[in-house]
Amino acid sequence: MGLWTLLEGFLLLANALAILNEERFLAPKGWGFSEVSTSGGAKTLKGQIIGLIYAAQYLRVPLIVLDAITILVMLISG
Fold this sequence. Notes:
Keywords: Membrane, Protein transport, Signal, Transmembrane, Transmembrane helix, Transport. By secondary structure, the protein is an all-alpha fold.
């Protein structure tokens, strides 16, 4: 396992976090952003994970660019 494989794994994880839908998946399970912002739980582990999910959702366009670069590098390198 090399550095490239590790970077691909992090990119896949970021993509998985970016596609989570709040209304259909997160809010019914109690993982909505409004729950953390109203209770002041941003310092808890749950609040930090929810913040990470929202950061990944906010950065969708750079993720698409990174995905395209990754695909091109994989196509060129074989």
